[in-house]
Amino acid sequence: MSASTTAATASPGIASRWIVLAIVCAAQFMVALDTTIVNVALPSIQSDLDMSTQNLAWVINAYVLVFGGFLLLGGRAGDLFGRRRLFASGVGLFTVASLLCGLATSAGMLFAFRALQGLGAAMLAPAVVSIITTTFKRRP
Description:
mainly alpha, 5 helices
C-alpha cells in the first residue's frame, strides 16, 4: 500500500472528527447564546405579551434554572442511554422548544417553553463534552 493510499484511507476518519466537532460546537454555542440573547428581545416580548417588568425576569430565569437544575442529570442520562442518543434528543427538544417559544401567545406559555428549552440544553451540554472527549481521545 502506497503512502498516498494510506493518507486517503486515513483522511475520512480525520475529516469526520472535525465534522463532529463543528456540529457539537454549534449546538453548544446555541445553548450558551440562548442564555443571553433573549435579553435583546425583552422589550419586544414585554410589549407583545403585555408582561410586567417583574415577570420579564422569568423569561430568562425559567431557562437558566431548569438548565442548571438538570445538568447533572443530563450527564448521568448520557452515561445510561448513550451520549449520541442524548445529544440528538437534546438538540431535538431544544429545537422544538425554540419554535414553541416563537409561537407563544402568553407569558405562561413562554415561561413553560423556555423551561423546556433549558431541559433540552441540559440534555445536550454534557453530551457535547463527552463526545468531544471520546472523539479526540489519543489512542496508544
